[in-house]
User: Fold this.
Amino acid sequence: MLYAILCYNSEDAVGSWSKAEDDRVMAQLGAVEDGLAQKGKLGPVARLMNTTAATTLRKSGNEQIVLDGPFAETKEQFLGFFVLDCESLEDAIAATRELAIANPGGGAYEIRPLRIFKPAPEGFRGKALG
Amino acid sequence: MTDIAWIEKAIRSARPQAIGALMRYFRDLDSAEEAFQEASLRALTNWPKNGPPRDTAAWLIFVGRNAGIDAVRKRARTTALPPEEVISDLEDAEGAIAERIDGSQYRDDILRLLFICCHPDLPATQQIALALRIVSGLSVREIARAFLVSEAAMEQRITRAKARIGAGSADFEPPDAIARAERLAAVAAMLYLLFNEGYSAASTPGKARLCDEAIRLARLLLKLFPAEPEIMGLTALMVLQHARIGARFDADGAIVLLEAQDRRLWDKDMIGEGLALIDKAMRHRRPGPYLLKAAIAALHARAQRAEDTDWAEIALLYQGLERLEPSPVVTLNRAVAIAKCEGPAAALALVETLGDRLDTYFHYHGLRGGLLAELGRPEEARTAFDRAIALAGTPAEAAHIRLHLDRLNLARPQLEETRND
Assistant:
């Protein structure tokens, strides 16, 4: 079974770490990732930029509205994600519009730039499961 | 990181919201600060035992409010203290208060807190010191170190500033849209001053801290006002400039000019954040001054090497900035860009129009000297450089000009980092 582990914490508190503190946490996480990678368990890893960098495309019926800021409602649940490599935010919004059209119903698509992205290491068992 | 260190960070990041709300309850800054202090102490004993609350700010506000009421009662000495359980039994109360939390009210609380620091009667340095003390919660000692004054002097300065903004100056009515926009603009200006106070001397220990604080508060402001392109611009501008901190000074603490910086030392995470925010802000179509300045910083950040810099685009952005905020210094910066993309003659023509207004400005004479030298007019260049040295604000600035004079190997105009102010 493939699992996505989604990390939640206070970005204000995390954002107030010094560079040294942040580096230390990254190293601690990296050590755990290495252990998982050796067992073939580690897939792609991403660290997102702050929510202030996010833009949200909201869909209601056939209408789409682009809003500044992160997805803020609690009526919907987190159902899935895509990682896209885009030229610009406009480009990312255009791609998101296509996805939103292909996806029935309403919902929202938060477009959040990635701060760190590590593709799945060699030997990730999930590749065979895909 | 220990749990206590984590708790301290969490308390610090909840501070603006908590103090802002407590000030609304008590209508008084000192009471709000005392109540917050008390709540923080209780958090340090309570959280390690019971685990941190889900909404740290709501917890601190609730406990702080009770503690503040206690303090008032104690002072009045009329009523007995409520039993400890009333204050400590937070399990249900937390949920209740969290529901009552109205996002827009908190937003105005924080904005008010920042805005009272921008009191027009206060000189800029006092506005900044006050914001660091009240909003960021830096100790007087830390602030004193950043401003290179004694702790006693800073204590006095903050006390005076507080007295000045004191009784009755804060407006507790929810602001209308116009008042909110005005407050936001004043706060943005104060945050940029705070940033520059740190940026200008970031090699001094304690100074860079001011940049971090300015960025932290700008991000907070952006979270409260997510659709304000100028707040995106301000945040982008600061992170893009601060991204260069690792490359801006050599081992002796002397300034390394932008074109000579080792760009591998620039912070890529910060640059990424800045570029993302500019992308967002540009969608609003009508760029303001912070966004234009950020866009200029972004063009530097995007250039892999100094020679890859898109100077023509930078010249255009400065032109846009001149329209919004006409200033001879902005024009001088445009001249720098023009020197790079059109050559020294065109740049000098523009620089010569600024002589009246910038005659006592170091960078004016420095740039003019460089351009004259490049145009093969060494005597005039020498005069301009002499004038620049006389006006240099720091030994590093003077040394830099002297280098050009000594060598009179004046192939390029020497430029201070392309700043915008």
Summary: Residues 195 and 234 of chain B are 10 Å apart (CA to CA). The two ends of chain B are 39 Å apart (CA to CA). Residues 102-226 of chain B form one domain. Residues 85-93, 410-421 of chain B have pLDDT under 50 and may be disordered.
